[in-house]
Amino acid sequence: MRTLVTGGAGCIGSDLAAALLSQGHEVLVVDNLSSGKLDHIEPLLGLPKFRFMGGDLEDGSMLDSAMAGIDMVWHFAANPDVKFVEGEPTDKDLRQNTICTYNVLEAMRKHGVKQLAFSSTSAVYGVSPVQPIPESAFFPRPISLYGATKLACEGMISAFGNLFGMRCWIFRFVNIVGPKVRKKGRTVVGDFIARLQQNPGSLLILGDGQQAKSYLLTEECVAAMLFAVEHANESLNVFNLGCDDWLQVTSIADLVVRAMGLSGVSYEFTGGEGGWPGDVPRFRLDVGAINRLGWRAKLNSEQAVEQAVQSTLRMMQASR
Ligand SMILES: NC(=O)c1ccc[n+]([C@@H]2O[C@H](COP(=O)([O-])OP(=O)(O)OC[C@H]3O[C@@H](n4cnc5c(N)ncnc54)[C@H](O)[C@@H]3O)[C@@H](O)[C@H]2O)c1
């Protein structure tokens, strides 16, 4: 199968691209390297079934030439950072998430491409009174621009799928952790390691440290998506992807401190329930649907974060 991976130079997209190649598929990665890195796909460059095209999904004519001859799109490109920074334009997520997703869908329609997998997020649910949150959560109410625009992407995908006969898989990820670090929009593991490298005596933790979220290792996330695409055949397939439990932010700090061989580190808190405006302080997702399909995470949140911390430190050491 000829596949297009948008955002394929990113942390998750690059692992997915490698997995697709190992299954024998052809892979074209389109990425503008805004938060991704060529390093992430360096081992793939030069493989006969792999191609990289530098480009922005806001550019319709670039997308048009990328889409020619494609059988399935894995759409991962997005502004990956949930945090809204005061002073930034409020249409950043709208353009990079919703408009770019529309551009991808429109190019698919023009070229008769009938299959799409999409990386959505737990942020579409916002603050839910029901925990764990099922896919059928009535009227999700996102509290961030990131979550709102990803929900809008899901709406566009549902409509294009219905109108133009596309089969689509929407994956709502919990926090995905692994060894790769983005250029910008650091995840909690990368953030704690970077702060402690700067100042090993004290760690600034956003919020009150009581936030509790679910975590899944990148390789498990990729395995779950490949499994779902193979086994779920509705016209629109929506899955929460994660594990059953959650982990407190202070426990992540403890794991990072221990893995870095530090002791006596004092924790400072910025305070407040969430780490930043739009942060959902506590969530875990109901993963019954993907479990019933036949896939279950091998690691719980603590094991996933522990592995991510170890592998991130190893990767940093190797690149010194
Ligand atoms: N990492 C997580 O915890 C998490 C959780 C929920 C959802 N997601 C979603 O998963 C996907 C991948 O996330 P990631 O963690 O690998 O982030 P990432 O930043 O590593 O990957 C995103 C990639 O998209 C590229 N990109 C962004 N805008 C683009 C554009 N307009 N045109 C072309 N390329 C563009 C970036 O350069 C980057 O390589 C994103 O859609 C993200 O929203 C991630």
What does this structure look like?
- With 320 residues, this protein is of the alpha/beta class.
- The protein folds into 2 domains: 2-176 and 216-241, 3-Layer(aba) Sandwich (Rossmann fold); 179-213 and 245-281 and 300-318, Alpha-Beta Complex (UDP-galactose 4-epimerase, domain 1).
- It is 38% helix and 19% strand.
- Strands 3-2-1-4-5-6-11 form a 7-stranded parallel beta sheet, with helices on both faces. Strands 12-9-14 form a 3-stranded mixed beta sheet.
- α1 (11-22) links the parallel β1 (2-6) and β2 (26-31).
- It starts with a strand and ends with a helix.
- 44% of the residues are buried.
- Nicotinamide-adenine-dinucleotide binds at residues 7, 9-13, 30-36, 56-58, 76-78, 80, 96, 100, 119, 121, 173, 175-176, 182.
- Nicotinamide-adenine-dinucleotide binds next to α1, β2, α3, β5 and β7.
Q: What keywords describe this structure?
A:
320 residues, three-stranded mixed β-sheet, 2 domains, globular, 9 helices, alpha/beta, Rossmann fold, seven-stranded parallel β-sheet, single chain, binds nicotinamide-adenine-dinucleotide, UDP-galactose 4-epimerase, domain 1
Write the layout of secondary structure elements.
Blueprint: E1 2-6, H1 11-22, E2 26-31, E3 50-54, H2 60-67, E4 72-75, H3 92-111, E5 115-121, H4 145-164, E6 167-173, E7 175-177, H5 188-198, E8 202-205, E9 212-213, E10 215-217, H6 218-231, E11 236-241, E12 247-248, H7 249-259, E13 266-269, E14 282-283, H8 288-293, H9 301-318
Parallel strand pairs: 1-2, 1-4, 2-3, 4-5, 5-6, 6-11, 7-10, 8-13, 9-14
Antiparallel strand pairs: 9-12
Helix pairs in contact: 1-6, 2-3, 3-4, 5-7, 7-9
Nicotinamide-adenine-dinucleotide is lined by residues 7, 9-13, 30-36, 56-58, 76-78, 80, 96, 100, 119, 121, 173, 175-176, 182.
